[in-house]
Design goal:
This protein has about 290 residues and is of the alpha/beta class. About 45% of the residues lie in helices and about 10% in strands. It is built from twelve helices and six strands. A six-stranded mixed β-sheet has the order 3-2-1-4-5-6, with helices on both faces. Strand 5 and strand 6 form a beta hairpin. Helix 1 crosses helix 2. The radius of gyration is 20 Å and the shape is globular. About 30% of the residues are buried.
């Protein structure tokens, strides 16, 4: 099984053409985004299909459950994109359109479930391969460091498009890494460290630093290293947000239900789609989809 992080993989590829997205008509920009997205997906299917089998495209749904749990989650991303000189609304609208096209015309399972992120989809499906009699090989295509925790499974590998190489993880250090991740939080996702308040980033304030001594105490002792009610409360906040073991059961069930739906597309549907959308270069490589 190839588990492809749709938004991250496509955005990473599209950024290489950022200068082209600042000129030309909307139609030309849309064609470029479509070609880059489809070509990226095709390249990973070609690279890993023989060894890892079916391609599953994991997408971000709406109304993330993590944001319901923790309102500031990813709260600064919109601000950052609004300040960018790229039209991110147009880019994501186009990727959403392509996502629906993939569902209708291609041979891939496209998992897009309300309240779920691509992270949830990948984590739940990777875990599902641990059931008795499965244990099929899994390749995660994503640069997200959160997937390091899935390397605890012997059948899971990861390729980082950003690093352009497979992610190598020392399994003996995974527990320490996860504890550090909980303690330090994740600035990119708006998750503060456990010494800082929920809204520290939204207020533009600096976090209280975690000393190396305290960090080591947490690595050695985990939750019991918390010294105050606030630290214990913030530990629970962070572990719920970053540890895949805390994905709610209803979210897991929704993902598995969506996965059971067969893919719709076939070779003829793909060919007609590529012709209709002027993807001539990809027509010569239709077998690789």
């Amino acid at each position: 099984m190839i588990l492809l992080d749709y938004s991250q993989v496509c955005v990473s590829a599209i950024l290489a053409f950022s200068s082209d997205l600042k000129r030309g008509s909307d139609g030309e920009k849309k064609d470029l985004i479509r070609h880059v997205a489809l070509n990226s997906i095709k390249s990973y299917k070609k690279k890993y299909g023989k060894q890892f089998g079916e391609m599953v495209i994991a997408c971000d749904g709406r109304n993330y459950w993590r944001k319901e749990y923790f309102q500031p989650y990813k709260g600064l991303r919109k601000k950052s994109r609004d300040e960018s000189d790229l039209n991110w609304t147009f880019i994501f609208d186009t990727l959403n359109e392509i996502r629906e096209d993939l569902k209708q015309h291609f041979k891939y399972k496209v998992i897009h479930v309300d309240r779920c992120e691509a992270d949830d989809v990948i984590a739940v499906l990777a875990e599902s391969t641990q059931e008795f009699g499965k244990h099929e090989p899994v390749m995660i295509v994503s640069s997200d460091k959160d997937f390091k925790q899935l390397h605890v499974y012997e059948n899971v590998k990861q390729f980082s498009p950003m690093l352009k190489k497979q992610v190598v993880v020392n399994k003996k250090e995974l527990n320490a890494w996860l504890v550090e991740h909980v303690v330090k939080g994740d600035t990119g996702d708006g998750i503060p460290n456990i010494l800082s308040s929920d809204d520290v980033f939204m207020k533009g304030e600096r976090q209280r630093p975690v000393s190396s001594k305290r960090l080591q105490e947490f690595v050695e002792n985990g939750f019991i290293a918390c010294k105050t009610d606030e630290e214990r409360r913030n530990w629970k906040r962070n572990v719920t947000l970053v540890d895949f073991k805390y994905i709610p059961d209803d979210i897991k069930e929704s993902i598995m239900t969506a996965y059971e739906v067969p893919a719709k597309g076939d070779k003829n549907a793909i060919m007609n789609y590529l012709i209709k959308n002027r993807c001539r270069n990809l027509l010569n490589e239709i077998e690789e989809f």
